[in-house]
Each structure stands twice: as C-alpha cells, then as structure tokens.
UniProtKB/TrEMBL annotation:
This is Dissimilatory sulfite reductase subunit A. SUPFAM superfamilies: 4Fe-4S ferredoxins (SSF54862), Nitrite and sulphite reductase 4Fe-4S domain-like (SSF56014), Nitrite/Sulfite reductase N-terminal domain-like (SSF55124). The keyword Ion transport does not apply. It holds the Pfam family NIR_SIR_ferr. The lineage of its organism: Bacteria, Pseudomonadati, Thermodesulfobacteriota, Syntrophobacteria, Syntrophobacterales. GO terms for biological process: sulfate assimilation. InterPro entries: DsrA, NiRdtase/SiRdtase_haem-b_fer, Nit/Sulf_reduc_fer-like_dom_sf, NO2/SO3_Rdtase_4Fe4S_dom, NO2/SO3_Rdtase_4Fe4S_prot, NO2/SO3_Rdtase_4Fe4S_sf. Keywords: 4Fe-4S, Iron, Iron-sulfur, Metal-binding. One of its GO terms (molecular function) is 4 iron, 4 sulfur cluster binding. GO terms for cellular component: sulfite reductase complex (NADPH). It comes from Thermodesulforhabdus norvegica. Coiled coil: none annotated. Residues 83-143 form the Nitrite/Sulfite reductase ferredoxin-like domain. It comes from the Bacteria. The gene is dsrA.
Length: 424
C-alpha cells in the first residue's frame, strides 16, 4: 500500500548508519493505515515545532486504574486513523525471558487489534504496545490475560512494573534471586500496581550485584542491590596468572587480549578506598574498607569472587529530573538478608509508603519528599537508625549525626588515613 503522507523532514532520520524508528514505522505503514497517519502527524509536529497529541484523560480497562496511557491527536480531521492511539503497558517477565511462541502470539494479538508497533523495552521495563483505539482495549486485555497469562503493567500514580537484571539465571556475580524478588513484589502489591493511590509513581528495580545492570541506583525509588558482608574470595594462583599474562583481563570483553596485567595501575590504583595491596606474590584485601564497587572482580573474574554471605543493600530516592533535578539513591539499609518470604523487606516497604502517602504532595516522588523533610524524618518513620555508611565521609559531612561510640573504631576510622596506610 502506497503511503499517502509525504514526510521529507522525517526522512532525514532514515539517513546514516544507525537504525531508524521512522524506517521501522514506514515498513509497518505499508499495511497499517494508523502508522501512515502517525508519520503524517509526526511530520506536522516537526513542521509546527509543537506536539499534536492532547491529554488522553481517563481511559483504561475495567477494574484497573493503570496500564493504559490515553492518546488522542488534536487534528483528527487530517489524521483520522490516529484520532485514538492509546498505549498499553504489559508486565514483562522477570529478566525479560521469552519463548518464541509467546512473542508470536503477542504479535498476532497486536497486529489484529492495534497498530502492530511495539517497544521492547521502554525505560519503564514494560512491553509497550503502541497505538490502538478505545474499543479495542478490553479485547486486547482479554487476549493478554486468557491466551498468554500476561497482565498490564503500571502507569499513573502507582507502583510501576518492577524490573530486574538477569540474576542467577545467567550471571555468576548475582548475590540475589532477582527473579523471585521481582515476582514477590509484583504478586504481593497488585493493588498498588493497578489502582493508583500514591502521590506519584514508585519504581522498584533489582540488581543482583553492585554492577547494577538495570541502573536502579539512578532510576528507582527503591533499589535492591545484591551485595555480600563477608570477605571477597581470592584465588591467589589465578591472580598470579593474570599478572603473568596467562589469563585475559575483563573476561575478554571490550577487546581485551591476553597480556600481562599491570595489577598496580589497573586494579589497585583504581580502588576507590585503596583497600588492596600486591606484594608481588599475593593480593591482600582489607575487606572492612571495601565499598563493593566490583572493579577488581570485573578485571580479574577468574581470581576474585563476591563473598558467600549474601544479601541486599536497600537504597531509596532516585528519579529523573521532573519537578526538581535528577537524584541518585541514598543507602538506607546497608545489608538485609533477602530470602523468602521477605518479611523484613515488606515491613520496610509498607512503613515507607505510609509515610510517603501521609506527607507527600501531589506529583512528589519519595526522594523529593526526603529532600524536603529531611532524611532524619524518613529514618524515624521506617524505624532505621542512622548509619555512617549512608554517606561517603561521615567525619567531614554532618548530614547524619551519630554517636562515635556506636561505630567500631570511633573517629579513628579516618578514610584519608586508611588510604595512606594502604598505599604500597
């Protein structure tokens, strides 16, 4: 089918070596009139330098307050096939594992009842079904739940769809069963996921180790980061093999080749707390100073491994810039054993939400509320005592006050002195 809309400005985005969403939409537009009108509407937006989508108002499926984002264009006279172009969010499987059978059925459903356009995956983590009409929302929802056993994800002022890294399914560094934790959160908090009741959105993201492959620390209101509280496991023979050039650094990633590893320059000098020392034969690690940055483990994966006493660090408060600037998460619980039935974590979450719902303003994320009322008030609400590990350098930063008598070593634990002591 020939396209009816000319799109010279959009066509510029198809040039060059990179994949183009415009080229993708044009391929679908050959069989889908909605996609043809979508291109025409977008071309008009480029020409006018303003968007031509208007607020969708309330639209969704029966019994759910979230999962559907209403989209209506303001020029249905020119583009009737996108007069309605609603987006549906589908709760993705943990770690985004699919079978080809499920993907084919999902494509068949959306080809019949929607635009045929997908986003795998948006920054939300969900499967994004882009573009359908109001009358098709219930039929799509019925097919998703009855044929595929899938549910809608979160949208609006509610808990958004939890997401996680690949975890123990494929990653040897994972300190958590990220998939089980994600499933537990999803199933336990169904009301919070589907029926908006919060001041604004709330995101859980789970990373199995401090590499944080889902970028939870930068994006999630509550980050669950796998960690360990005993010592890094060291294979001294493997360390010597890296230094001798018998093993490839970084597991061969990023073009690394077999060569002698300059362990001083590439590992020890890059340790943020200088908690390591190489005497030419053995690697010494002062584990009490380790901040779990994972650098040494990433460079020498055959020689170093996380400890065996594993759990999670719980952080809160990250967000992208909306009302205020972007924020990274803050450590709230340095270590928690994350094992079924996760009762300690549930208790923390529910106290956190109670405080946020009581004090939060409309469209105020948790991190913004903590910034406004203070971390002291948040810690009192969730029943957590201040801990120097919540900040980088407690001696120089009075953000959190604590009694030195409660900290092993008291004020003698000076980070500067530690660095000097550990210099080779």
């Amino acid at each position: 089918m020939a396209l009816k809309h000319q799109t010279p400005m959009l066509d510029e985005l198809t040039k060059g070596p990179w994949p183009s969403f415009v080229a993708d939409i044009k391929r679908v537009a050959e069989r889908k009139p909605q996609c043809d009108d979508l291109l025409g509407l977008l071309e008009l937006s480029y020409k006018d330098k303003e968007g031509h989508w208007k607020h969708g108002g309330i639209v969704g499926v029966f019994g759910y307050g979230g999962g559907v984002i209403g989209r209506y264009c303001d020029r249905p006279d020119l583009f009737p096939n996108v007069a309605h172009f609603h987006t549906m969010r589908v709760n993705q499987p943990a770690s985004k594992f699919y079978t080809t059978d499920v993907l084919r059925k999902l494509c068949d459903i959306w080809e019949e009842k929607g635009s045929g356009l997908f986003n795998f995956h948006g920054s939300t983590g969900d499967i994004i079904l882009l573009g359908t009409t109001t009358d098709q929302l219930e039929p799509v929802f019925y097919d998703l739940t009855h044929e595929l056993g899938m549910d809608l994800g979160g949208s609006g002022s509610n808990m958004r769809t939890p997401s996680c890294c690949v975890g123990r399914a494929r990653c040897e560094w994972s300190c958590l069963d990220t998939q089980d934790i994600t499933y537990d959160i999803t199933m336990r908090y169904q009301d919070e996921l589907h029926r908006p009741m919060f001041p604004y959105k709330f995101k859980f993201k789970v990373s199995g180790c401090p590499n944080d492959c889902v970028a939870a620390i930068a994006r999630a209101d509550c980050s669950i980061i796998g960690t360990w509280r005993d010592n890094i496991r060291i294979d001294q023979e493997a360390v010597r093999a890296y230094v001798a050039g018998e093993l490839v650094p970084n597991g061969g990633a990023h073009g690394f080749e077999k060569r002698p590893l300059d362990i001083q320059a590439e590992v020890i000098d890059k340790c943020p707390t200088r908690c390591m020392k190489w005497d030419g034969k053995n690697l010494k690690i002062w584990d009490e100073d380790c901040v779990r940055c994972m650098h040494c483990i990433n460079v020498m994966p055959r020689a170093l491994r996380p400890g065996e006493d594993v759990g999670a660090t719980i952080l809160v408060g990250a967000k992208a810039p909306i009302l205020e600037g972007a924020q990274l998460s803050s450590v709230i619980i340095p270590f928690m054993k994350m094992e079924p039935p996760y009762e300690e974590f549930h208790e923390f979450v529910e106290k956190m939400w109670d405080w946020w719902m009581e004090h939060g303003k409309n469209r105020e994320r948790l991190g913004e509320l903590i910034q406004r009322l203070g971390l002291r008030e948040f810690l009192k609400a969730v029943g957590v005592k201040p801990d120097p590990r919540m900040i980088n350098t407690p001696r120089y930063n009075p953000y959190i006050f604590y009694d030195p008598a409660d900290v092993p070593g008291g004020w003698e634990r000076d980070p500067v002195a530690y660095r000097q002591r550990h210099q080779p």
